[in-house]
Arginine biosynthesis bifunctional protein ArgJ (Domibacillus antri), 778 residues
Amino acid sequence: MKLGGFSLSTFPKGYKSCSLNAGIKDDTLDFTILFSEVRASAAAMFTKNQFCGAPVVVGKEHIADGYLQAIAVNSKNANVATGEKGLEDTRKVTEAVAQELSIDPKDVLPSSTGVIGVPLPVEKILTAIPGLKNKLTEDGLEQSAKAIMTTDTYPKFRTRKMGNVTISAMAKGSGMIEPNMATMLSYILTDAAIEPAQLQKMLKKAVDVSFNSVSVDGDTSTSDTVVLMANGLAGEVNVTEFETVLTDLCIELAKEIARDGEGATKLVEVQVTGADDHTVAKKIGKSIINSPLVKTAIFGEDPNWGRIMSTIGNSEDKVNTASVSVSFADVYVFKNGAPAEDKRAELAEYLKTDEVLIKISLGDGPGAATVWGCDLSYDYVKINGEYTT
Amino acid sequence: MKLGGFSLSTFPKGYKSCSLNAGIKDDTLDFTILFSEVRASAAAMFTKNQFCGAPVVVGKEHIADGYLQAIAVNSKNANVATGEKGLEDTRKVTEAVAQELSIDPKDVLPSSTGVIGVPLPVEKILTAIPGLKNKLTEDGLEQSAKAIMTTDTYPKFRTRKMGNVTISAMAKGSGMIEPNMATMLSYILTDAAIEPAQLQKMLKKAVDVSFNSVSVDGDTSTSDTVVLMANGLAGEVNVTEFETVLTDLCIELAKEIARDGEGATKLVEVQVTGADDHTVAKKIGKSIINSPLVKTAIFGEDPNWGRIMSTIGNSEDKVNTASVSVSFADVYVFKNGAPAEDKRAELAEYLKTDEVLIKISLGDGPGAATVWGCDLSYDYVKINGEYTT
């Protein structure tokens, strides 16, 4: 674990959690409850994948009124492409959790991550739930960040103070990562008092520049979910300040997801400026982050920048090639439509770093975006060639 | 070389070729001339990449009148992202070739493939051209198919007879392969008599279902070019029959490109049926072929079919998930919106084959498409991590 050392005072008030092994696949932590002592304002964003998981379907129903009191998450099985039975299984789990916690089933948001197309071992989960209320603790959030992992190599957890108010956020995700209007799984808990509508607006803005700006492999998961709960126990908060902190937190976690991308050895940041608008800038940035040719060159520490030019040239949007400039950090490889002075040796040295920054200027338009990804290594192939077998 | 044994009589009349080493990068064959004794009707399709190579720009000018007499190809350097100097270099090469062959420079189509962003070593090529006319032979086409290779592991060459008429076709391509309205490089020579306009129409149709239905890594090259020359020396031909043979030839070569994709161990064919139209079917087929998660699972011979469902679900087009069926060859994994009987053991056995067929039925729409690709292996990462260094 790269993180650690959080004390009780660094967590938001009134939240408890518990993670245990329900035996879904092996003997690691695979089932987690995040619980607020009081009903909390809540906002969420979900995957746009049309084969979304059963928990996403049920989660959308339960968040509709803007309130939640618990999140029930299992790893090791995504409960996706499981038909009508998958939906029934998810409802059984949320009902059992609600009964155990003496709350309304509609205030429980279910979430699942793991293999697709395998029925959820629902009996194992239902067996694990009774008695779980007594296992809830106030200092377990960091352990929960570990329990929701799949191929992640370390938990992603951050916490921030703003006066009386605390925001704690966890995320998981390592492969099948190109979130679209949401991320893999991220749960953000705060004790600030904020109305659901405002919460949803802030979450949407933060997610656009963080989780939705990350891609490991261009595959949008069927289970992407980010949930923000605000139980109000720490009172009012300066909304502008809260939004800034929330966005920073989401960006930090999003970068962790890219850095910990399956098999990744380097975090890649692409800054696009001078585009016609933000959407174009983001699309071009994402295409660089997703190009297997660019990704393997970065893995190989090979300054083969022609592949970046080719990827930009494939944009659906019109690019004025004569005004394009590209640099690695501050070393230009292409300037105003023509190759820059050859600095391959310097670039090869730069590429030995574990954080690669590519800057692309498309001209003098107002559109800009920053996106994050990672390189493509032998280990990505290994991890994904052997996932279910 | 997997192919071979072609005799002079299997080549179209009136074409000569020559391949030699001009010393562009190392001592392998890197410069090729394909020459017709008489001016030939010609059709061509080029990449849509906005950073297209200098030879593509000049090639478009030279094919504009519908006639060509020679194609001059170099490998090891793409002459892309090389600015104004790149265009001048290409024109110098076509002019020198035209002078050597005593033909109009406008009847020479230039073509380059290799690294992007490195100036063409034009002096080396210009030095190699004088005296080249005497080296032209009538039986060298297969050697030319070898000379245009970059990371290909074997030459791609096919020839077909239709009565008096012969069509010979070569192609190269192994990485940066997702042709868009053209392929990497393919040159098709025939002695049939066909007008340029008709030739272009036939080529466009054939390319759509062949080269433009292949993807190795989703990256459309800056150099994609397919050229069809018809010098008429064998006389008239049944146009319908010719079109069928041309299309078959293009499909065979396209499949070879996928089979020989960088690092590939398996050819993957995806057949999509029941879509609203051909475009939707092709887009969904391509998304499966390009998913790194699907590709690595196939490399690992892991029947992790949930990744196919996830990829279908990410389609921009509306999918009626309840009517989707998916099979590997004839073994269903998903039928009418629900998982089929679990046959993972049988599937694992099937995946040991070196040609994997995935069939996707989206419903009862009229749209269908077949696309080809390959798996994603350790060797793809190795080849592309070490390309220029």
About this structure: Chain B touches chain A through 70 residues (CB under 8 Å). The longest helix of chain B spans residues 239-259.
